[in-house]
Queue: 4 jobs
Job 1
Amino acid sequence: MIQQCGAKNRQGTPCCLSPLKNGRCRFHGGKSTGPRTVEGKKKSSQNAGKHGMYSKKERESNTEVEELCEEVMKILRQFF
């Protein structure tokens, strides 16, 4: 007999899917339990940063640029 998930689906009947190699259903058991080690957690936290637009370094750079733009606008207003 093939082992089945057994979790109840929306109709209220047991799920009939066979489990994956790790013994979990792909819908009701999930494949990952998340990182467990310190190294894995560090790597996982870095996965979210795709472009760095909101990194601390980038935000500081943006404020510097904004301040420079304000100074330039003040100087231009004196002439026009």
Job 2
Amino acid sequence: MLSEKFCQCLKLSKTPAYKLAWEAGIHPNTLSKIVNGYLRSKDNDPRLLKIGALLGLKPSEVFALGKEVES
């Protein structure tokens, strides 16, 4: 699961998300589906870690590991 910080940084980035996606080797539609919860990403997915690095995030800030979302 992606962290809230990752999603916020992606939305607030000056570089469009589709450009970050292409640079990381992921299709922009796939990135959108992951961010919006339609697809699950594997923990420590290297493509998402690369996008995180492009956004200036540490690897530990990309994924919300161990944090359960209450319904």
Job 3
Amino acid sequence: MHRDFLKPEPVARTQKLLDAARDYPCSWCNRKDGTIVPAHCNELALGHGMGLKVKDYLIAYLCHDCHSAVDGRSHGLSKEEKRAMWNRSFVVSQSWLWRDGIIKVA
């Protein structure tokens, strides 16, 4: 299996996807409080941290509180709970992006 699409690299941004976060509510709790950010997938990261992220198409729009929960900084969720939360949020976020034409087939 070719895994280059998972390889972390220095931040090379897909700005349109990142900027769109401000136009949507949190894909988990539906809050729209000005803290919505694109949360990158930690599950697929082969090493991550400051400046190293998976590709920008592997994001979910989450508020600060939900992002902290998914990243394990708060709420004490199990690995399975964090995975389920991020996966559902990813699907919801992606459905909005396709619906609104942010992502489209060329």
Job 4
Amino acid sequence: MLRVAEQYAASDTGRQRPANEDSLLARAPLFAVADGMGGAQAGEVASRIAIESFEAGLADDAHPERELARLARAANARIHELSHANVEQAGMGTTLTAVYVGEHDVAIAHVGDSRAYCLREQRLLRLTDDHSLVDELLRQGRLTPEEAVEHPQRSVITRALGPEGDVEVDTRSFHARAGDVYLLCSDGLTTMIGEEEIAAALLANARLRDAGEALIAAANRAGGRDNITVVLLRLEEVGGAQTAAGRDAFAGQEATVVGAPAVSVPAAAGNGGPATEHAPAGTAPSATQSPPRPSTRPPAASRRMPRAAVARADLAAGARRRRVPHAGALAFLLVVLVVLVCAGYLALQSVYFVGTNARGLVTLYEGLPYRLPGLSLYSSQYVSGVSASTLSARQRRTLLDHSLRSESNAASLIRSLELEEVE
């Protein structure tokens, strides 16, 4: 069983901001960082609400990922409601990155561009993905890492608590190990110093207090353009030897390793269909699930294969013995059905429409803007970095009306929006 052996938490205003809009929680086994936005102290209010939502902790019998996501959505609802009730706090929001230390696993909930890392065996592993315009462009291959560093909109985030009534929360669980050091931080740290420098500071300082102070000092030396919040925790094992699950930690998980080739494997990403009032009804996964651990036993289907093969052979023999006289008519009907299905498929490939995805980003869809029970007639082809909330009422009416368009027409409309954002 694992527990927190050492922890450190601090927040610094930095050198260029007049106030600190970051908030933090460091109450083992639950830790969180929130970076507020909105101005006129609205960001400070939003981040404080987010942290207050987690202060009661998790019940012992709660499922950590589901409970973290529930608390994040509750905070989102409170912030969103307050931002509409008070003019001076309109549009406020906050990032959130929370970590819960269980007996064998660490569960993470994440929205925005604050980050969580794990230092293990002298390697720094990044555990969260930034919900930012620049990272979206990087994932789409439209920016290089070098271009991203100097991009004029590198501070624009695409997901946060507060701006929308609903929010998608990324959650993941990782097999933990004694000796792991976990870092939660706001982007006031990661925009000032690189991951190599973060890893070096953690490795050079045995005490977490010394490491945390070194990180904050380094960010301030680099300019301290934003508030800097750092939360560190080290795990130890109690009550027995380390389990095999711990030795196999991060197997099948997605992480970026500093100083080594990046590990990238598929992970569930909230890629639902259009989900706002300007898009066809659809749902998106509210959490990213960890892939199951591989089993040493053969799959159940393999264990039943001989019996299933015999059954299929018996059925085939029986079918030959019971050949019906109308086989020709059935074959004709089957051919007609195949032709109709193919025609429908080709039709869906030739029409496009513009809508928004579950995160409120303007998206190019292929197909028809309808969803049948158990069947979606559209698929996402391109996600822009433009939030529908930034569009004028006229743009919403003309662009997000689900009119069927050609691919070139729909793509050019989205491109013009992106150029307006950059300008």
